[in-house]
Amino acid sequence: MSAKPSNWPLNVVFSPQQCYHSSIPAHVLSHIRGSVHKNSKADGRSSSVSIRTITDPSHPAVRQRGLFAAKKIPQHTHIIDYSGEVHADERESDYDLTLYRNRDGDVNVGVDASKMGNEARFINDYRGIRDKPNAVFQERRSDSGELRMSVWSSSLPIKKGDEILVSYGKGWWRARSVDGVSVKEST
Ligand SMILES: C[S@@+](CC[C@H](N)C(=O)[O-])C[C@H]1O[C@@H](n2cnc3c(N)ncnc32)[C@H](O)[C@@H]1O
């Protein structure tokens, strides 16, 4: 079992690997897990990030945690995979990302890191913090063939100490009607 990163919350299980919930239909599960069953590098761990509690009073997520660069991260570089519970049931979670939708649109698979996950669950949205995100979510297949949601730096390097910030998308904020957070931006 992997050691928990520093500043990990007590009420969340640290799991650098994806876990699979019973709500995923078998044919979708085999598509997500992939056909190559071999152990691959656990990309749910990264030495280039650290979890910090935000103390800056002007930060919109003050007193929460955020994910920061522990060293310089070059542009277009894989930072970490987002791990959690992969599921196909309905969830109301602020830690749930879409991983896969089938063509008919009747199966939506998400990765929910509300109860288990890795450092990636602490990535905040850029709104109210910076002009634009410095990282993006992107699906990829791991060496073992597993479909994962990964986090990459965008077109500029991320400086050591900078917060890693993505766009959750306008829809994420609209769905939550969060006062004071602008959703005018195009992403
Ligand atoms: C996936 S979590 C991010 C990690 C979270 N800060 C924590 O400590 O667990 C998403 C939550 O972070 C907060 N958050 C993220 N980005 C934010 C932003 N730009 N402004 C305000 N709150 C933000 C909101 O409370 C949101 O529901």
From TrEMBL:
Residues 47-169 form the SET domain. InterPro entries: SET_dom, SET_dom_sf. Pfam families: SET. It comes from the Eukaryota. This is SET domain-containing protein. It comes from Neolentinus lepideus HHB14362 ss-1.
